[in-house]
Amino acid sequence: MAGRKDAGPTNRQLGIGEKVRHAVTEVLARESFNDPLLDRAVISVTEVRMATDLKLATAYITVLGQADVEPYVEALNRHSKFVRGRITPALRTMKYMPDIRFKTDTSFDNYARIDALLRSPEVARDLAAETREKDDDHDLDR
After folding, report:
1. Nearest one of 111, 19, 6 to 59, comparing CA atoms
2. What does the radius of gyration of the chain's CA atoms come to, in whole angstroms?
3. Contact partners, residue 107, CB within 8 Å, separation at least 6
């Protein structure tokens, strides 16, 4: 059987990652961490990526109303064993309970950067020129 180099995550990884995301989200919403930083924050788990052996889960987070998410990531990584213990009942069908690492989700920053590029005057000018060319070609076909 050939290897899966750069083929992306398998359906199994995606499915288990989604189950882990739901379980971690429940823990973050309902549990008290005895950490003032985490107890007052609204933390959203945007994605969980699973390692190929399903023994490591990387949870990407954002914090509502916070520009600097790093202190929250550090606090969650300090409490990762607690989170792992709390998600165990929800994932009891898994052979191994994954270790959880938390990281900052930067995808929203990337989306904002792309949106700003698409709205820039240079791109608007290029799109307008392309539209005029298509209209001219269409008129010639008549």
Report:
1. 19
2. 22
3. 46, 47, 60
